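Researcher: Here's a chain I'd like modeled. Treat it as a single chain, no partners, no ligands.
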Amino acid sequence: MAMTAKASASQNPVPAGLHVRQLVKHFGGVKAVNGVSFSVAPGECVALIGPNGAGKSSCFACIAGQHPVTSGTVEWAGQALNGWPAAQRMRAGVARTFQVAQSFEALTVLQNLQLLRANALGLSAWTALKSVEIDDCMAGLAQVGLQAQAQAEVTDLPYGAKKRLELAMALAGIATPRGPVQTASSQPGASAVPAPRLLLLDEPAAGLSSTERHDLMRLVKSLCAQGIAVLYTEHNMDAVFGVADRVLVLIDGCIAAEGSPGEIAQNQTVQRRYL
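Model: Modeled as a single isolated chain. Structure tokens:
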């Protein structure tokens, strides 16, 4: 019986990555998103682009859980995320950032990360932040180049630093507590594996200078190299070409083109209607 169950599990593995299946979003009589399907694999960096009014923001908001879908499914690591609140998504390893950087301005840079870690660990909101995972949070700040500003108040940071802080906060919220974890279906004696993580970045380069965009997107690529799946929207093409592994072009609520940045740059429909 045990051998049969094990064989069945190996024949039906949990699908890795993000899977968007026939996503539809209507606002009254307006069909903003009309049957969008695509996948993002662990370690893959995928850009979602398109002209204004193409449905890109609505599609992203549905995937991130900001808007309820009209129909279709958004699946992550074999679980349908439809209707899940942000806290539940973060526990599943899914975090997002916003076009305008979101952080707690009255706190220090370090306290912003500590607050996210306290939430991820299920600690009370009244826990003294000064005692929450200082070493891990400092490591998170070092990853985005903000360790020197750890004790600075967020309100005093330049905007580019606030963008990097927001990214660090997203990572802190979905960091695996206390090292690797195993799923309930893991076999006894099997090696533990890190929990899968997905970053949804809403125009990460918006409002940044050319140098800041380059530095931030290089950081995003380094996260993909760690196995994190990344889906992002963007209008700055220098944050797409040379960065994304794959590009999805949304036009009139549908995927009009999909491929490598080089393929998208040569696509006549994309050139005519967007680029």
